[in-house]
Amino acid sequence: MKNIFFTPGPAELYFTVPEHLKQALKEQIPSISHRSRQFEGIFDEAVRNLKSLLSIPDNYYVFFTGSATEIWERIIENCVQDNCLHYVNGAFSERFYQTALELGKTAVALTSEEGTCVAAEETQIPNEVELIAFTQNETSTGASQPLEDIYLIKKAHPDKLIAVDAVSSLPYPNFNFSLVDTVFFSVQKGFGLPAGLGVWIVNERCIEKALQLQKQNKNIGAYHSLPSLLSKAKKNQTPETPNVLNLYLLAKVTGDMLQKGIEQIRRETDYKAALLYHTLDQHSFLSPFVKAKQYQSKTVIVAETTRDSSEVISQLKKDHLIVGSGYGNFKSKHIRIANFPTHSKEQMEMLVDRINALKY
Ligand SMILES: *Cc1c(COP(=O)(O)O)cnc(C)c1O
What b-and-e string marks burial along 188-225, b requiring 16 or more CB atoms within 10 Å of the CB? Predict the structure, then answer.
């Protein structure tokens, strides 16, 4: 029997990936030139499908990088001259903030306890801040910043750029792109693809900022600077030899998701999350780590356990259900469960049954 990966990344592959992989090999996709018409077709298909799936407006660009970690760095290089501000509530948002410091910026962190979010209305944002960074879904704790909080900050500071890490939540959140300037993710979480591809959505304001920094001879990086990504993307190409196979798979999987319908995917995500939280609320030794309902992630559900997490993980593994351990210091105290589009209702019901039957 095959394992089902409920780990929050890398995660279970989207269920159509094996078929698309076979087809890709048949078509010899890994060997085609990234300067060929065929590649341009794949690039174009991936971008069009993503724009349609996530309702990304026409005046936004979609670029491809090696990872989301790379995009943290590129955003800081291309969109910040000196000052940025980060909402920090766990290991991933902390890493985004540290990236800005390491690149020599004056970065300020607004920090809240792990398992919560910084309340948006309480924030004081200094004038000199150029960019505000949110981690919409903090994968280390399962705390999710409500989109309304992000919009509130944007409306109060329309002159500042808003950057949103939505790596472990997309395609679930339905962004109003007119109130965010850049959003990004990598494909091995909710999109159910092999790792090694980052997707970077940006608007004109980000491009203008990068061009302005370039004019002032600031370092905006080289091959993946926004101007270089843009000049190639206009031809449906990338500056480097990209992960062509994964781009092909992304084009196909987003096509499948479009066919299923994003509304259906979001409804099923809500249903499966409700099932899991209900189970944790009733459980004898597991409980949701994120207490405030408005901050409970729908896509990465984190449970506190009064038993060692490794016992829970190994019991579930006997039934081929693979869940994640806690992140960092929480390793033995938490389990983390992904609720991504590939996980069917039946699979989630099976997991919930087994969680209810856990014995010691
Ligand atoms: C996984 C993750 C990242 C890093 O993604 P990579 O593809 O490993 O670079 C960044 N932010 C969040 C919130 C994540 O969950």
Answer: bbbbbbebebbbbbbbeebbebbbebeeeeeebbeebb
